[in-house]
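Dig into these lines:

——
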Amino acid sequence: MKIKKVLSLFAISAFLLTSCSSDDNSPIRPEQKDQSEVSKESPVVGEYSFNHAGNPIPFVFEKNVITMKMSGMAGSGQGDDVYNVITTYKNSEGVLKTVAKNKETSEYKAFFFRDIKDDKSEFMFNMDLTAKSEIEAIKSAYPAKDIIVEHNKGQFGWLKLTKGAIVEPIALPVNGKYVFSQSGHTYYYNFTNEVVNFNGAYDMTVLAHNKNTNKILLQGKDESVKNNYYVIQLKNIVDDKVAIARLTFSTATAKADAEKEFASQEEIKASFTTYTKDNGTTNSAFANLKGTYGSTVILDPVTKLPLAQYVFKLVDNAEAFLFKADMGQGFGDQASFKLKTVATDEKAGQIIYEVTGSTGYYSGRTGQFLTVYVKDIAKDGSKATFAIATKDGGNSVAGSKGDIVGKTIEEAKAIKAPESDKVWKLDMMKYAHLWISTTRE
């Protein structure tokens, strides 16, 4: 499996890649003794991902094997590239080079590692060097830290890999009901981040979204279409209008064919039709509220290190409100509410949570109900402004503050949102009944 295959897959994410133009990055360096053998194993072990806007890309590092896990890329439709580790070297600048051979072909690669954190949580990774022999890979030049690359030469440069599988919440650029009418006939799509419905006839489960091509990979959800796969592409999204094209795949190879189309950078070969938002729809920007939203971090005025932050966690089965701070033992969670959504009023921007667990300063509120208001939700859900409302306008919901949140759902619903001029001022102690601007992590 050649690196060209990997290039085509990386193009899914429309990388902004460039190819080396300096003498320091020539494929083979002059004979010199600036590297030494350090082991016969990979310098890191574990599952890592390269995070980018379109599609996180997974890599698996074992002691003796490095796998470019292309099968783990949503919509790639391709198998993995597996390399057996031969030897790892280090140069005078501490950059590591692991020479490896493709498990299925005679191709060799030199993988480069630098800036590996002490806990191995992240590092910079370069996989550009492909060689015809082991000695060629051993003698290959170490890529410059500021290498300039371009995609037409099959190079990707230094990629930041982070430990663990990255699962980005899907946030489609449109949500709600979009309608097209012609000659007395009306058709519509109803978009959410999880399911797209066509004309009320059937649902399609959203499997993946590529932010660069605005292609959506879907699978039939209803019994009548469960074996079908679909690719929808969106373009010309302006105000309340969007142009939509769709391909349906229903043969024995439907899944592979749909994934191939989803992975392609080419525009869908189908007619685009302009649909208009039905403003009567009950869907709203609430559908885009998924993930972990953090406030501005309060910094220590002397050390400039993180001191405190408020976090709203809107993740299925793991909703929470967190107070993070450094109380002398490092920056981390100091108090929290574990939450469960029990009611929403999207028109009012209100979410009612049952407190299912409370720790730290918030202890004692388990079983009570928290009233949260949300506004200024970005179209893609990347930003939002939250407020925890209190009965008396108090600025803390610590357990010691007494009767300031709802004891029942109805009581919580009756608590009003703070006025628009009530804004959080990076105060560790005053945060409730104030509007807190946040950004999704």
